[in-house]
Amino acid sequence: MPHRITLIPGDGIGPEVAAAVVKIIAASGAAIEWEEHIAGQQALDKFGKTLPDDLLESIKRNGVGLKGPITTPVGKGFTSVNVGLRKALDLYANLRPIRALPNIPCRNPTLDLVVVRENTESLYSGLEHEIIPGVVESLKIITEKASTRIARFAFEFAHSEKRKKITCTHKANIMKMSDGLFLQCFRNVSKDYPNVESADMIIDNASMQLVMRPEQFDVLLCENLYGDIVSDLCAGLIGGLGLVPGANIGEKGAVFEAVHGSAPDIAGKGIANPTALLQSAILMLRHIEERAAADRIETAMLAVFEEGRVRTRDVGGASTTDEFAEAIIKKI
Question: Which of 75, 195, 301, 314 is the most exposed place for a label (fewest CB within 10 A)?
């Protein structure tokens, strides 16, 4: 039976990279039936809301979604569709594998780490209000339930993927109650996984260490805001957001997404790099147990990067989106 998966192409370059990834998945032999939906400004214009009910019901029904980039207005307009999806579907775990790709210049060509980020709490939730004119309060909420849940997710992931060490990042030296609770939950859960080494590091030091010696890390566990910042920092270590995958996972569903922006300045030009969404699709295929198809795509993609003849402009080439996709399909 084919897998039914919700497809949200997004806006800007989203439809272009999504179309390329859909073609590559078809070539891999994975049996997929796509249910396509819109979100963001397109949905607001058509349905009066950025996350239509039909879209949310589709993901709940299928259990899996693949999402291209969606523009979020800065400082005004509607709130992030990404955050809205995570809240609506309780996608509490954000997974960001960071692995250097062949022939992409970086300081650490063997880098291979994973950022696990709590997705539902902390300052990133955007719980803000104006107390009096000129004074705004932003609420940082940390709960034992969410902190324990994400710590267990990180240890289960490390165990299943044969990762050896988890480092919990925090600022418990200053935020002794909120970050202190997050750290204590991590320590409590670590007792159930004696075969996985556990450590913790203050977030500012961790950021410096990531720049200086990132190879010392294996799995990084972060609360929401720290994880948002650290995961982008890590992407910069291997060439940028256009190369790394992202997944948002909950108990009843998962959405795999490109983590870069919608790049409206190059939309429609056919030059966008689909690698981030493609790598997210590889994670998705493994999630639905289409591992053979995922391996075929990954092997072909790595071979194209290794040869270095076909690459998009953002990584020093002159190939189009379709040419890059066709090169991977040919390898498959």
Answer: 75
